[in-house]
Amino acid sequence: MDQVRPAFSPAMAIGSMLEEAVARVLRASPMHENSGAPHGVLKTPICPDGRPDSKGKWPVRTLLPIEQWPSDRETLEEWASLRLDVHLGAMMPLTQMAWESNANRHGDWESLDASRIAEMGRNAISLHLDELKHLVDDSSLLCWQRLRDGVREQIPAPDGWSPDVELPPEVCSATGWLGAWFAGRPWFVDPDAALFSMTSIHPDAWFAGEFDFVYRWAEAPSIIDLKASDGTGDFGRGYPNQLTAYAWLWKETHDGQTPLSLRIWYLDGPHVKEVPIPDDMGFEAWAQQAEALHLRMFDSNRSISQFPAEPSAMVRFQPGGTDEVRTDEDRCTWCDARLLCEHGRSHVTWPDPPALDTGRWKTFDEFRSRWTAAGHAMSLSSLRDRWPEFSLKDDEGHQRVFVRQGGPEGLQEVDLGEYISISDVRVEPRYRGPVIIADDLSTLHRNPDPDLERVELNTFQMRYSIHGIAISLTSKLLEFDDGRTNPMWSVRLVDASGTCEAIAFGDDVPKIAPSIRRGDHLLMHGIWIGERFGKPQIRLDRSSSVMVI
After folding, report:
1. How many CB atoms are closer than 10 A to CB 251?
2. What is the CATH number of the domain that holds 512?
3. pLDDT tens across 374-420, in order?
4. Residue of 211, 292, 221, 306 lying closest to 261 (CA atoms)
C-alpha cells in the first residue's frame, strides 16, 4: 500500500496543544500550585519507555496558605483559567516551531486566532467543572469516600504524585469544590509522557486507542473526547464511530464493563454531543467488522484493488454536530489521496513533462527493480567471506555479484565455472560501477537457456530522470542502538502513470529538501531504482539532483 501522510494544518497542531494544556491544568493541585507558577513547575518523571516512572524523582510540592485556596466554582475557575494562560503562553511558540518544521505542514499559522484558542481552553475547564458539580451536589457518591480513605484507582489519574505514595492529608480531607477537584479528576494521558506511550491496547494486540478524558466518579466511567472545533465540519461524520470504538475498547480491557456515557466536547461553543452506547449485540457486530477490516489491511497479499474508493457526499452539521446535511461539494477536491485513487486522479490536470530531453526519462509505471543475471560462476571461495560475493563471467567480462540476506537457495552447491542464471536480482550503483545483488528473493537456475534475456552491467542504464508531484513527505533523524544517528528524507511522488517513493539518507539528502512542499512539481536527475517491500523505490545519492519546477 502507498503511504500518504495527511496534510498537517495549524488547526491540527493547535488541537493537540490545547488538549495538553488543559491536561496540565487538571493535573495540578489548587492547594499547591500558585495561579502564576511557571509552565514547567510540575513535571512527571518518565521511564525510558516514555511512561511515568513511579520510582522516579517526583517534584516536592509546598502547601499554599489556606487563604490562597479556591473556595467555590468562581475562584476555582479563575485559578484554572490563569494556569491555562500560563501554559498556552509557553506552548504556543513551541507548537508553532514544531508545525513549521513538519515537512507536511499546510496552511498559514497567522490565520490562527490566539484569543479563540484560549477561549476553547476555558470552555474545556468550564465543562470539566460542570462534571464536578455532580460531586458537589451529592456527597454520598463513593468517590468521596475513596478520597477520604486515600484510596486511588489501580491506574490513577495523573495528579503530580507518584502512584506508589499516599495522597497528602490536606487533599484527602478537602471538601466542596476543592475536594471535588481531587475526587473527580478524570484519567487522561500524562502531558509529560511520550507520544502514544499510554495507549490502551486490546488483549489480542490488534486494536489500540488513547482516551482523552475518562471520568470515574460514578459506578461506570464516562468517556469524553475533546474537539477543538464547533462540530460543523465533515469530520463530524466519523466521530460517533470513534467513540463507539473507545467504548468497545474499554469493555475489552476492563472485564466487560460498559461505559456509562460517551460524549464529544466541541470546545468552540462549547457544545456537548451525546453518543449512544450500543448494546452487547451492537458491540459484537462492531468488533467483527473492525477485526475483519484489520485482517484485510494487514494481509501480506493485500492490494489496493481490495479497497476500492467509494467517495461519499460531503456533509455539514449544525454547531455541536447535529442535523447532518449533504452538500454539493466534491470530496475528491479535498482528499489527501486524490492523486492516488481512480476517482481522485480524474480530477487532476497533470503537468507537462519538462522540455529538456536527457534520453533518460522514465514514468513510474516503467520502473523495474528486479532482473535476471547469468554467466559462468567464478571466485566462489569468496562466498565464505563475512560479506559474501562471487562473479559471473561472460563474453563481456566479469560481473560482481554481492550475496545478501542469505542469497538464493543452492548457491553453495554451484561448481566453479558452471553456467548458471539467477532471477530476481537487483542492480545497485557502487564507486567502481554497478553491481548485482542476489538476496533471499532471488532464485538460482542451473543449466539455464543460454539465450535468455539477462542484465549486462557494462551496458546497464543505472541512472534516470523523472518528474512528479509531491503528495507526502517524511523527514526524521534515525536513531540506532549504538547511539548513532542518520537523517532520512523521503517524498511520495505521483505522475500521470502512477506513484513511487523517493528516499535519501545522510549526506545524500538533497540540500533543497527543507524547502520542498506538498504539491510541488519536482524534477530529479541521476536517480536509480531500488526496492522497498518488493516495490520499486527511487534512490537519491550524491550523483542525483533535485529541483522544483
Report:
1. 17
2. 2.40.50.140
3. 999 998 888 888 889 899 998 777 888 999 988 999 988 899 999 99
4. 221
